[in-house]
Amino acid sequence: MKFIDVTLRDGGHQHGFHWPLEFIERYLKSLNSFKEIEFVELGYWKQSGKFEGPFYSIGENLLSSICKMTKKKLSIMVDYHYCSHNVEDFPSTKYFNELGLIRVCLRKEDILDGCKFVKDLKEFTKCKVSINFFNITNYNEEDLALACKAAAGTGADFMYFADTHGGLDLGKNLKMFQSCTNIIKKIGMIPGLHLHDHSGKAYFNYRNLLNAGFCSTDVSLGGLGKGLGNLKLEHVFDLRGREHILDHLIIDQDLFKMPSGPYGVLTARDSITDHYAVEAENKKLTPSKFATLLKKINGSLKDNYNYKILSNE
Questions:
Q1: How does pLDDT run across 244-270, given as a tens digit for each residue?
Q2: What angle do CA 301, 305, 306 make, to 5 degrees?
Q3: Which domains occur in the chain, in start order?
Q4: Do 71 and 80 contact (CB within 8 A), yes or no?
C-alpha cells in the first residue's frame, strides 16, 4: 500500500491554508521517520478565489523554499474546474527535483477535457500525475466505467477516487470497486482511494482497501481535513519509536482544530457536500431542521454548493 500525507493540503481547509513556515519545517522533519509515506502533499498550485492563504496558491518561490526543508517527495494538487489550463503555468521536475506528484481533481462535467489536460500536463512537467475523481458516492457503475475509459489514454500514474462526502461503505460496494480497480490496473495505473470520516467509516474502509483492489490511500495527522476530516495517520501506522508525530497535536493544537458537530453526519448520509453542514452550523440550525432542508437538495446540487438552499433559514 502506498501512502500520501495530506495533512497540509486537505487540512488547510480548516484555517484558510495559512500554514506558518516554521511549522511546515518541523512537520516535514517529523515525517522523515515514516518511510511508508511516499509523498507529502503541500496544497494547491496557483489557485485563487476560495482561500487567501499562500498554500492555496503555491507558486515557484514558496515551493522552492519548501523543497529545501525535506528529502521527502512532494505533491501539489489542482482542481481542474478552477486552475489554469495552460500546462506551462505548472512546475516541472527540471526545476523542482523534489516534486514527485501532481494530482488533478476532476468533476463529472470535466472528465473528458480534464483527462486531455492531464495527458498534456504529464508530458510537459515530466512528473508523476494522478487523476482524482471526487464526489465518488454519487457515481454509479456506468459513471465509474466512463471515468476509467476517459483516463485510459492519459498516461497518468495514479487514478484516485475521493469519498468527498464521507459516506462511502466499502463493505456494501466491494464488488463494484473490485471491478473498477481491476480495469485501472490493466490500464497500467495505481488505483487509490481518499477517505473522509464524516460517517465514522474511514478506518473500516481502510481495512477493506486491499480487498477492493486499491493500492494507495491518503492519511492526515489527527484526521485533519475538509469537513469532519480524513483517515487518521495515527490509526494506520505503528507509532512505536515515532510518537513524536503526536506532539504536533498538542504543541500546534491551534492548527489542528476541526468541527465535530452532527451536521456532517447528515450530509454524508445523503452524499451531499459538507459546505451545507458548515452553513447549518453557522446558522445554529437544529439537526432535525437541517435534515428536513436537505431533502430539497438533489442532482448536481449535491456536489455543488448553492448558498440559496439555506439562505432563508
A1: 999 999 999 999 998 877 999 999 999
A2: 80
A3: 2-255 (3.20.20.70), 263-310 (no CATH)
A4: no
Cell of 238: 505503528
Say how far apart CA 271 and CA 199 lie, in whole Å: 11
At residue 187, the pLDDT reads 95
At 313 the pLDDT is 59
How remote is the C-alpha of 152 from its chain's centroid? 21
Mean pLDDT, the chain, rounded, equals 95
Share of the chain above pLDDT 70, in %: 99
Least confident of 6-10, 157-161, 277-281: 277-281
| Mean pLDDT on 115-119 | 97
Cell of 282: 453557522
